[in-house]
């Protein structure tokens, strides 16, 4: 005959606080007792019995109430069943994210999605500009997920078959925009570098550029020319960084755009402040034209890097498009009958 299954008995015991250790030791000495667990805060004693143990719940109650030197009251309680997780319907969706400029942006989008009530998991890929989200349909919807992304300053839409083609077009347009920024940045930055180099290496070739502008004390033609060349780079070529930095700061997201904007603006504004100070005190030594060169060169380097990145993304998208074009449009299923 098979032994009865192992049992676990839960008992509510009043007055157990002063007898916890000694009661546990006494119960463990009973024949057939395997494990004794006492929860003082709930006045609950849980006893696991070995297989084939002949002890009954009443035997355990009697053993506790007749415990030496203590007056305890015990009765059997129904052990709490483990909580059962509610069964909810889940769904997955892929979102196309527009406006991310670095991995920090992707991390911000991913964090915002994961913190949304009802989202089970979210993974954002900066390279493919997409987000894979698994969510509970009873708690949150796709429209809400899109609004979460848009709420932190990015554009989002549900990825579909037509989205792939649209993404390729968008990346082509994006690459063209970055190319225009590169041309603008280099056209105005290279003359600044040339002037600054000649001022240090061959000052005789630019003789007269250090003279005052129309006799205005503290000013100089070289500082004015460099200032005029740096301004389009700072506020046209780098305009996208300033816009993204403003949106990021408004949503407490400090990514690459914020760093570029802050760094270039700090250098540019310091150079402008030095120009004004030189004119105010009629002292040309206060001029700091190298600050304008710093801001323009930084913008030029970053814009060139972003252009190369956009080019690489475009090449990847084109390769994926060609790969998708290779998939079969029609499939024929052949079924083998009894005749072979």
From TrEMBL:
Residues covered by the HMA domain: 91-157
Top-level division of the source organism's lineage: Eukaryota
Stored Pfam families: HMA
Protein keywords: Membrane, Metal-binding, Translocase, Transmembrane, Transmembrane helix
GO BP field: copper ion homeostasis
Transmembrane segments annotated in the record for this chain: 182-203, 223-241, 253-280, 292-312
Gene3D superfamilies registered for this protein in UniProt: 3.30.70.100
SUPFAM superfamilies named in the record: HMA, heavy metal-associated domain
Single GO cellular component term: membrane
GO MF annotation terms: copper ion binding; P-type divalent copper transporter activity
Name of the protein in question: P-type ATPase (P-ATPase) Superfamily
